[in-house]
Design brief:
Length: 164
């Protein structure tokens, strides 16, 4: 089943998008345009997109948002669309849900799509910087002790040495 998704676009529950039959203005007046299924491109953030022109101006639509807006109720007016299985290519309506930004981030961390970032307070940073020369462990091993990455340990040491 196709549903209206935007000005002259329709979307189905699988995430296919097509243009509608319509009349457009041209130099000779108007002409009929026959709608067709549109080729989907890739947005720079990894989501499928449709790039079209509307009244001569470029317009880009993210496919998962078109599907969600057409097929999924959003009574709480949540602003983000989440891919339940974490696969940005799977735009079927059963794989999408409306979420808040914090729900989206929690899902990304829980499914290991996004690493958990932890802020390290100044006391812990100072402790790491003081003990670092005496600890015979790699940055990765020290990071595991504080539940952060080896890169974070490296940056703490680098930051502290540049302050001296």
């Amino acid at each position: 089943m196709w549903k209206i998704a935007a000005e002259y676009l329709e979307v189905n529950e699988d995430g296919d998008v097509r243009s509608t039959n319509r009349e457009v203005r041209c130099k000779a007046g108007t002409r009929k345009v026959i709608g067709k299924v549109l080729k989907q491109g890739m947005h720079h953030n990894g989501y499928k997109k449709i790039a079209t022109k509307y009244h001569g101006k470029p317009k880009t639509y993210l496919v998962h948002r078109l599907v969600a807006e057409a097929f999924i109720d959003n009574p709480d007016n949540k602003p983000h669309v989440n891919h339940i299985d974490g696969n940005k290519m799977n735009n079927h309506k059963s794989n999408l849900e409306w979420v808040t930004p914090s729900e989206n981030m929690r899902h990304a961390v829980a499914t290991k799509l996004q690493p958990l970032t932890i802020k390290i307070n100044t006391d812990v940073r100072d402790t790491i910087a003081i003990l670092y020369p005496y600890i015979k462990l790699s940055n990765v091993e020290i990071g595991k002790l504080f539940n952060v990455s080896g890169t974070t340990i490296h940056n703490i040491i680098k930051e502290r040495s540049s302050e001296e």
